[in-house]
Each structure stands twice: as structure tokens, then as C-alpha cells.
Amino acid sequence: MKKLIAITTLAAAFISGTGFSAQAEETYKVQSGDSLWNIGKTYGVSVKEVQAINNKGNHLIFPGEALKLPTPVSEEEKDLLARLVHAESKGEPYEGKVAVATVVLNRVDSDIFPDSIKEVVTETSAGGVYQFSPVKNGEINKKADEEAIKAVEEAIAFRGDGNNSLYFFNPDKTSDEWIRTRTVTKTIGNHVFAQ
User: Fold this and answer.
1) DSSP labels for 123-173?
2) Three-class SS of residue 85?
3) Are 28 and 69 in contact (CB under 8 A)?
4) Which of 21, 87, 118, 127 makes a 20 to 30 Å CA pair with 32?
């Protein structure tokens, strides 16, 4: 992945009010009962990236094993993404919230979108229109609920897997014809996800 960088510093912080704790280190010593999934969610890193930088072809890890960890998503960007998910996905099923977060992460990883969560979320079209309506209407400024925070953690750990959706829309709320020309990957609740 284009953003894969080994961490060279040890950091631990808790950002109060966001529900996320940032813990990053160059390596992580596997404890009994650990899984790559839980390590990914705890440290804010992609399981797939952990596997790649540790040359693992499967999910097997062993107590005492030292794993290199990729650069985690920052607390600021996790919070911004959770607020976007909260605003975009009110009333949607949990799976849809994870999918909305995944669309943003897929855009960050894509060569056709900006390279950070903040830049993707605040990006405007050539006509100056925000890509996500909550940025325009101010809903992005409201605190995320626990379900949105959990969805973001899951999407980050799941990053790099899935159906590569780069867009989502509610067909009942948009008249945009271009978005309807995209290849549909999945429909969850009221949202259609597409490439």
C-alpha cells in the first residue's frame, strides 16, 4: 500500500472525548489470546498491512512473537471519520456504517483521491461542492456516537479487504445521474455502494 511506513517512535496517548486510544510502536509483542484482528482494532492499523510487513500469508500469530506495526491512523483523523460516519449513516445498519468508513479509507488508498482522511472528507469538486454533504451542512461538527467509533475501528482493521467501493449514495436523496452510472458493489440499508 502506498502509505505503508514503519513507525520509529513509541507513543501512547488517550484523546479524551473521542473514544479512541492511540498506541503505536515499532513492534508489538504478541500476548496469549491476541489475534491480528484485535491488534488491528487496538492499534488503529490494517490487519492486511500487519500481515504484509511481517511476511505473513495467514492469520497465525504466536505468544512472544514480535510484530512490526504500520503507521496507525491518527486520533484526529479517526475522530473526523467517526463524525462523518455518524452524520452520513444515522438510522443505517452497523454494516452500512462500516462500509461508509471503508469508502473513505478506499479513497485514501486510491490514486485518484487525496492521500489522507482529512483531505478526502473535506475535498471539493471542481465546482466547489463538498464530496460529503455533512461537511457542507455542519453535521460533521457533531460528536460521533459509540457505534460510529466502533465502525471506524472495524473499517481500519479491515482496511485493504472488501469490494473496493469508492462511492456511496442514497438513491432516494440524490438526483445525480453520474453516480448512478457507477458499478454497484453492494446495497446496505438505504445506501448503494459503488466503484
Assistant:
1) -B-TTS-BSSHHHHHSGGGSPPPHHHHHHHHHHHHHTT-S----EEE-TTT
2) helix
3) yes
4) 21
SS3 6: strand
Query: SS3 for 29?
Result: strand
Q: Which domains does the chain have, with CATH numbers?
A: 11-68 (3.10.350.10), 75-194 (1.10.10.2520)
pTM: 0.79
Q: What nine digits make up the cell of 113?
A: 483521491
89 with 100: CB under 8 angstroms? yes
Which grid cell sits at 61? 500469530
Supply the pLDDT for residue 119: 96
Q: Can you give the length of the chain in residues?
A: 195
Q: In the prediction, which pLDDT does 160 show?
A: 72
**H or E stretch covering 77:** helix 75-88
Asked if residues 37 and 47 have their Cβ atoms less than 8 Å apart, the reply is yes
pLDDT, residue 142, reads 97
Distance CA 130, CA 113 (A): 13
d(CA 47, CA 39): 8
Closest-CA residue to 77 (of 159, 185, 136, 193): 159
Q: Report helix, strand or coil for 106.
A: helix
Residues 150 and 132: their CA atoms lie apart, in Å, by 20
Q: Cβ distance 26 to 8 under 8 Å?
A: yes
